[in-house]
Amino acid sequence: MTPLSYKRNLLAVAIGGIAFYSHVANASSPYTLPLIGEAKPSVLTTQCEDMSLRLTANHTVITSVETIKKGTLTLGNNEIEAHCLVKGKMHERIGEVDGKPYSIGFELRLPKHWNGRFLHQGNGGLDGAVRTAEGALGGGPLTGALMQGFAVISSDAGHDRGLPTFAYDPQARLDYGYQAVAKLTPMAKGLISQVYGRQPDSSYFAGCSNGGRHAMVAATRYANDYDGILVGAPGYRLPLAAVASIAGAHVYASVPGTDKSNLESAFTLAERKTVSKAILAQCDALDGLKDDMVQDVKACQTTFNLHKDVPTCESERTGLCLTQPQKDAIATIFNGVTTSKGTPFYSAFPYDAGISNKDQLGWEYSAPIKRDSGAVAMIFNTPPVDLKGYSIRNFDGARFVWEANIDELVDRVNTVDGVYQETAMSFMAPPSPENMSTLRDRGGKIMVYHGVSDAIFSMEDTEKWYQALNEKNMGRADEFAQFYPIPGMGHCRGGQATDQFDMLTPLVAWVEKGEKPQQVVASARGEGNPGGVNDELPDSWSATRTRPLCPYPSTATYNGKGDIEKATSFACRMPAK
Hints:
CATH topology of the largest domain: Rossmann fold
Helix content: 25-40%
CATH architecture of the largest domain: 3-Layer(aba) Sandwich
CATH class of the largest domain: Alpha Beta
Number of helices: 15
Radius of gyration: 24 Å
Number of strands: 17
Distance between the termini: 51 Å
């Protein structure tokens, strides 16, 4: 590129930015964001095995290339078409601190009938395993990126076991947080170019939970590499959410009579069901219909009052009431845990009918000991706790949780020390997540969904992110970004919810054709569902109930007539001003 053309490009970007802000200030402006354009398909005629010797990439070892026949993989009742499976690893090395071998393991699936698109699949949890690169999201998914003809990559994010001990290696921390994506993306696109003779026409990133965090990071750090971002339940402030989970365990343990080895004794399933019924009694009809769902989540938070609407036990706990200490503990957690000085450090959680979901019990009672203890102690703690031989066998999660000082844990996610030169919040969180101007200005789009009853990553935290994004964009974030709260749904799936949906197809249509989604139809996974049955659905529901998922701040509202089990009887309406 010549200096003159470089200056012209800079000028074009600057003019585009000015035009955008002129546009958002004046809704009648004819200016529209750039359109990526529709991807073009290709057919792969070369045999997969014939490519094994000619596929190359820097710092990469291709370990195998094989043909996967049609039907070897299925999604629901659907057979995935024939494709090539490329396996490999990048940046092999020996860790300087722990002396263990590291690399970024991956698999890349390349369809025989390629739709011209690439999807990077962000995986959940602590990563540490190369999961099948099918690119399927949405409850029990019936479709996915690979099935639709995308080339799809999946990786272990730089370590080969899903244990937090990898984080004693400083580079493994950074790869897990954000650097593995930076290394995998050009490599994957390079291999795609070698196989099909051209780069992808459009590129997407998708994931839920930690995969949603990866997607949020991609939308900020790597916005020039991706055109569409699909984000589920984003743990985009994962270190603070994990500390909040441990703080929540401390709160539950403070309830008189609670057994620390069984935190459910602080707030039992029967008691949770009592609260769920109280929430439904106050909030179910706010959307115009009593259907065992709370669609108007925002209104419910001011309508429902834990202290007034749930009976207070006068003597013994019966499951039909709560003691005052129980109410105080629950309110503390749902209002958002704080430091010893009363400073909130993560987020409040919304009251929702899904408070009695299995997912709630698992994340609030088991996760602090079995999951968050190790993650906080080794990955997000700087420096990590001292372990002999860096072995998980030498770590007592329960002891760590009960001896933890929450103030210190909060401080340490923002600390550097010795060889650990990036804080946990630096390497895990997207930088300035409210600023997605790069993605916006090049025509990229982002769609985010979050279960209202998610007990580990708060839907309200995601709501605040979207509000900040909207403010940054002068009230017009919906030009390129949408946020979908899903009533009743737990973490990524499940609960008293219509949790089965395809959000990738509308994202592609928005990115490539400019067709902005007005809603996404979701279905319940009742008896006979090919994506797997959700056994938490209320008996009153049809097995095939559908509902519109509505872009925030609109909510699904009953039209006053029509089959209450069908999405067509509902409309997404904006709140009254």
